[in-house]
Structure formats: structure tokens, C-alpha cells
Write a structure and sequence with these properties.
The protein is built from twelve helices and eleven strands. It has 411 residues and is of the alpha/beta class. A seven-stranded mixed β-sheet has the order 3-2-1-4-5-10-11, with helices on both faces. The protein has a four-stranded parallel β-sheet with strand order 7-8-6-9, sandwiched between helices.
Length: 411
Amino acid sequence: MSSTIRGNAVIFTQGGPTAVINATWVGIVQGLILCKDITGIWGALNGIDGVMKEDFVDLMAQTAGTLQAISYTPATQLLSTRKKPGPEENKLMLDVFQKRNIRYVFGIGGNDTSESLDIINDAARDREYELRVFHVAKTVDNDLMENDHTPGYGSAARFVANAFRGANLDNQCFGGLYIGVCMGRHAGFLTAAAALGRASPADGPHLVYLPECPFNLEKFAADVDDAYRKHNRCVIAVSEGIEDENHTPILQVLSKDRLEADSHGNLQLSGTGALADGLVNYLKEYLEGKGVVKKLRARGDTFGYTQRSFPDQSPIDREEAINLGMFAARCAESGNIDGSCAIVRVSDDPYQSDYKLVPLKNVAGKTRRMPAEFIAAGGNDVTAAFVRYAKPLIGELTALGSLDMSRKVKF
């Protein structure tokens, strides 16, 4: 194979959207638009479904103003899918690639997307069709191998941190129990972000539960009992992916219904509110039964899609999303054949990052989890090391005020 080849480029997005995924593909377009070997830049609508249907939009024809506005827009204007390609899908896509002289493929997504691209890449090699295939990192779960962090995580973590700041103050007004369930199937990075808005040790979340640690309902109840007695209230952050020691999802333990799975085998763990409701009911029975409180004021929320597509981008997240897209374009222009475009951290203070191209198979279908040094002993909180790692990624949060209680009126 030659190092460069002349032809069209196609860009698609797959899996769950983020607040900055549009910024990434805008960065790719900005990087490709002056490349002499690129004859056209097309966006495939609904991921690989759009490739197979030849449902393309001309991204070169978009105005600079349109692309600039889209880079600030959450979710994906290219739409999405969770389809995993099989032999028939690969044949259809390769037929389209050959028919339309598509030589460059950019897929923006998480580990499922990287797996799909790896499958497409292998199929192209089997057919001996010269193709350049690049995966560009994206996921609010922050669970891609070879990445310090992924575009989408910083903005979603910013939302979670702010949501728990608000929930903590709300809970402070009346006391009681509050549980917020965050996304995170196997990795707890997003749930851990709930701790990033704490202003003092008395602030919630008082407890944080991540899928990296086996979850025991009895220990959970005892933890909440201790926190409630200490603070006379309790705010809890829980990952949707918490499992018991046998790797059974706690949602399955609490639910009588069988969990559904997508084409990649991922169980549906949130979206119904069942986990939050089940945990609240369990704790109400426990705490009222022990006499910790006569009648527990309790509420559980499932944050759901609001985490990943809330229109409040972390500034550094947007900047890195665009830069990673432009880096992917440079990798193609430089004659690279394939790979996954990842973010690496250069320094903590001041915070700086850079970009690298790694083998697709290093990322495809694999999951990165929270390192042990980010998880507090006992498995019910995060450490200062995690806070140092994540704080630069969410940007500055609005300062909140509190009354000076030493100024109470005395009679």
C-alpha cells in the first residue's frame, strides 16, 4: 500500500451522544478540508446504517458559521446507531466504499465503535481494498484504553458535579435521603465526578459507589446508617453498573424483570428509574426498621440522557474534542493506514494534554476502569488523587455562597 491515496472521506458517529461529539467531527472537517488527497467529505447519517444506505450529507458544503455553531451544539447532528457490523453489513459497506471511491473512514465513538471499525478494517484487508480507518475517541464513561480521558467526559462530569451540588443544597433544606444514579456500566469515572463539587467535608455526596467495587446491600445500608447519624441526612451517588461479588447487576438483584441487551451485549441498566427506586425502598425499610428515623424522607433520581447531552460544555472538553478531530485528519494526511486517536496528559500543573495514534486493536472492545488509587478504602468514596485528575477537565464551576451563621440575631 502507498502512504497516501486519493478519494472521498466519510465521517460517522456511533453510540451515545455527548456534549462535544459534534465538535470532534467539525475538527476532522477543518483538518481535512485543505488536504489535496481528499476529494469529498461526507457525513454518514445514523452511523454505519447511513453508510450502507448511502445516506450522506456534504460536510464540505457547510458554511464556516454553520460548523462553528454546530461545534457548540450537544448530541450528534450526524445521528447515531448501536449496530454492530456482521459479514453482510461489511459486504454492503465495502461495496459502497468501492462504488463511491471512499478511501478514508472516521468513526467517532467508544469501545463498541472502535470494535466496529476494527471489524470493517479487517474486512477491507480481506477484500484487498485500500482503506484508511481511524477511530476517534468519544465517551462520557471515560473508559477507553490508551486514553488519559475521552472527549465528552469533561462536560458530562461537569454536569454531574453541578447536579450533586444542587442536590446537596436541596437535601440540606429538609434533611432526609437522596440517591442519584449516574451512567457508568463498568467504569465509575462519571459517578465519581459527583464528588468534584464538594466545598466542605460535610457536603454531599456523602457516599459514592462505583462498579469497580463489589456492592453488598447490607454493607451499603450500614454505610448509609453511619452517614445519616453523622450528618442527619445523606446524599449518595451510585453508578448504574454496580454489581455484587458474583457480578450480578444490583438492578437485577432488586428487579423481577429480565434485563434487555443491545447488539453488543450491553444490558440496559438505567432509563427506568428502577435502580434508584429499589435502593430507596431498601434503605427506607432498613433505616425505619432500625429506628434511625421514624419516617424517612427519601428520593432517588436517574440522571439518564441529561448527563451526556446537556448544553453546557466544559471549555477544555470542547477544545480537546476539536483538536483530537484535527489530529485525526493530520494522521490521515500523513499517510497513516489506521489507528485510534487518543488523548494523553502531559502535565497536571499547569494542566496540558497531547494526542497520539494507537493501534485499533489496543482499544477495540476493551474497557478501562477506575484505577485503585482513585477509590477510597472501603469502596464508598473517591480519593484526593481522583479529584486532582478530574478537576481540570470540568472547568471552573460557579462559586456558591452560604450564610454567616455567626450573625444570627440574638434577643
